[in-house]
Amino acid sequence: MKIIFSHGKESGPWGSKIKRLANTASMHGYDVDSIDYSDISDPDDRVERLLDVLKNLSGDFVLVGSSMGGYVSLVASESVDTKGVFLLAPALYMSGYDKQNYTTRSPVEIVHGWSDDIIPPENSIKFAKAANSILHLIPGDHRLNSSIEIVDVIFRNFLTSIDV
């Protein structure tokens, strides 16, 4: 199975969070890739790039997205058959984003920091309630760096839960 990472607006394809989670996935036998969106500022254009990449993919995969990359991964999951979607402080229900209602057939798990001052945790709560998704509200801000160990454990458990 392959894990496809999508980074946020202010990050890059191999930022510290993605490196950490990619290492965890690799250690558990998953192939990993991280899409570079640094030349695209529009979130919906990023969705199109991800969908283009996924068209050429064979086999099962999981989408992982952080911040704007969370929006990108979730919206893309509506058009593809993925084993699961793992979101970190996803940029959902944000003004200026085309999509404001989300539907996916895939299992979705979200991690969001209580002290996030960029994307309100309430946005993840709203989605989790509507989609009946698992939501972990943990100590930390938008970047979740202070709680990366917790994020890593949650990610490992997510991979185990979808790899049955």
Helix-strand blueprint:
Layout: E1 2-6, H1 16-27, E2 31-35, H2 43-55, E3 61-66, H3 68-77, E4 84-88, E5 108-113, H4 121-131, E6 134-138, H5 148-162
Parallel strand pairs: 1-2, 1-3, 3-4, 4-5, 5-6
Helix pairs in contact: 1-5, 2-3
Describe what this molecule looks like in 3D.
The chain contains 5 helices and 6 strands. Helix 2 (43-55) packs across helix 3. Helices cover 37% and strands 20% of the residues. The mean pLDDT is 96. It is globular, with a radius of gyration of 14 Å. The chain starts with a strand and ends with a helix. Strands 2-1-3-4-5-6 form a 6-stranded parallel sheet, with helices on both faces. With 164 residues, it is α/β, with parallel strands linked by helices. It has a single domain, classed as Rossmann fold (3-Layer(aba) Sandwich). Helix 4 (121-131) links the parallel strand 5 and strand 6 (134-138).
Biggest sheet, in brief?
6 strands, parallel
What value does the average pLDDT take?
96
CATH architecture: 3-Layer(aba) Sandwich
Strand proportion, as a percent range, falls in 15-25%
> Which strand order spans the largest sheet, edge to edge or round the barrel?
2-1-3-4-5-6
Could you spell the SSE succession in H and E letters? EHEHEHEEHEH
As a percent range, the share of helical residues equals 25-40%
Distance between the termini: 12 Å
What gross morphology would you assign? globular
Count of domains: 1
How many extended strands?
Answer: 6
Task: Extract low-pLDDT stretches.
Answer: none
Structural class: alpha/beta
Q: In DSSP terms, counting alpha (H) and pi (I) runs of 4 or more, how many helices?
A: 5
Rg from Cα: 14 Å
CATH class: Alpha Beta
* CATH homologous superfamily classification: Alpha/Beta hydrolase fold, catalytic domain
CATH topology: Rossmann fold
